[in-house]
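Progress against Task 2.4 (sequence-to-structure conversion) is shown through the following example record, which the project officer requested during the mid-term review.
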Amino acid sequence: MVRSTTIFRVSDGLPLAASVDDETTEKALTEYKQQSKLVFRRLTPNSEPACSIESGDYTLHYLIVGPVIYMCICEGSYPRKLAFSYLDELSKEFSRSYGDKVETATRPYAFMGFDTFISKTTRLYRDSRSLTHGGQAAGPTTQLDQLNENLRDVTRIMTKNMEDLLWRGDSLDRMSHLSTSLRSESAKYRKAARQINIDALIRKWAPVGGIAFFFILFIWWRFF
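Structure tokens generated for the chain above:
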């Protein structure tokens, strides 16, 4: 299940809103919340827009939408599809409610009133079995059967390990420049391969063509 949620501003990591966690949850997640702060210090507008970061018994999922980062800490067994659908739902409502105020916020947790929506949405996503099998309870914005049909596709979302990320220096920067480079190199390879094939054909058939040309030339000279 979703244990804790925090919403940050991308540009400076300012916390904008968060779930109100009880004392037990707060104590259990102290280490993970500290780790999440280290992660957010590394995020930039060019970072991977969605990522799951595994750490012990929990997984931190984040989603960057425009100038805002939506993060939740879930139990490791909680389905990734549900986690990102949860974050997606938060992002839509937060943008609708506070989108034009994000850049002008100057104090931490300026939009704590959003906790009401976070709490309602967390309750909706609490029972992962009913969500993933089409339960019928009503949620804050959708029916569970509708939600089940629209779960976010997470097959392409990156998964990282917290230890690798924090202590081994792995980057969360988006890999678009690498993808572009790979596509460019692939295009160069295909072009070179075509040229090699053409050269091979020329080498193979050039002698035959030369002989045929001289034979035709000889026939023309001999009879015409």
